[in-house]
Design a protein that fits this description.
Length: about 260
């Protein structure tokens, strides 16, 4: 199978780090195709960044409609439901994947993320995903996302110290890493912490393999049906659901 891992920010070094983590856990028969969004912010650290990044995400899905599954490699899961409308292939957001994985191996978890403003976004995801009973706390390290591009000793130690505070103060049973850029920290953190440390990129790969392997596809009934055909105006005219370079989308026609 072929899984397309999409980094919705435009920092290629972060994509390479996530790709390495994904390839390490993927089955031998799984091809990981990691891509960097061609348009959007260099890092995603707020609601505005997320909103703008969704167009680059959509571009990558539209450019490659034949992938067996897609992974949105940003802990905010930007554009997750919109992406699921676009394709019948499974689409996995790494935050949702990480939280579910944590509940499989523990009864509680704390999330360790980057800036305080992204802490607030993660708290909203916890509520939206029905994880409030399991999530003890979302913790911010105040590290900018781009500091994770090539982690230094200071970055490693900062994240480790926050994880240890989570264990001592939150009494949680596992740690969820709240940024895709933290995928490269797993090898550093896991030997130093006595609980499961969960990275959304790697567990999303395994969930995608499971869904594809069992033949599960995204429902095309209800709100995840293909987008309704209609014209779009202004700068977004090219994103109209029926128009791909002026041609009708056959999957929408087939679904009707």
């Amino acid at each position: 199978m072929r899984i397309k891992l999409i980094n919705p920010n435009t920092t290629a070094a972060m994509t390479r780090s996530m790709e390495a983590a994904a390839v390490e856990v993927a089955a031998p028969s799984t091809v990981i195709e990691a891509v960097t969004a061609r348009s959007g912010p260099v890092s995603i650290e707020g609601h505005y960044d997320e909103a703008i990044s969704v167009l680059g995400l959509i571009d990558e899905i539209r450019a490659d409609p034949d992938a067996d599954a897609y992974i949105i490699a940003c802990f905010g899961d930007p554009g997750l439901l919109a992406a699921r409308e676009l394709t019948a292939a499974p689409v996995i957001g790494i935050a949702e994947a990480a939280m579910h994985a944590a509940t499989f191996v523990s009864t509680s978890f704390s999330i360790v993320t980057t800036l305080d403003r992204t802490r607030i976004i993660s708290e909203a995801l916890v509520r939206n995903y029905g994880m409030a009973a399991a999530c003890r706390r979302v913790r911010a390290t105040d590290l900018p996302v781009l500091d994770l591009e090539e982690p230094s000793d200071m970055v490693n130690q900062t994240v480790l110290a926050e994880c240890r505070r989570a264990l001592a103060e939150d009494h949680c049973d596992s740690i969820v890493l709240g940024c895709a850029g933290m995928a490269g920290l797993l090898d550093y953190l896991r030997p130093r912490l006595p609980v499961p440390v969960i990275d959304g990129v790697t567990v999303a790969v395994k969930f995608a393999e499971a869904l594809v392997g069992t033949g599960l596809r995204t429902s095309k009934h209800g709100d995840l049906a293909y987008p309704l055909p209609k014209p779009y105006g202004g700068k977004l005219a090219a994103y109209a659901p029926l128009l791909y370079g002026g041609e009708e989308r056959p999957e929408i026609d087939a679904a009707r």
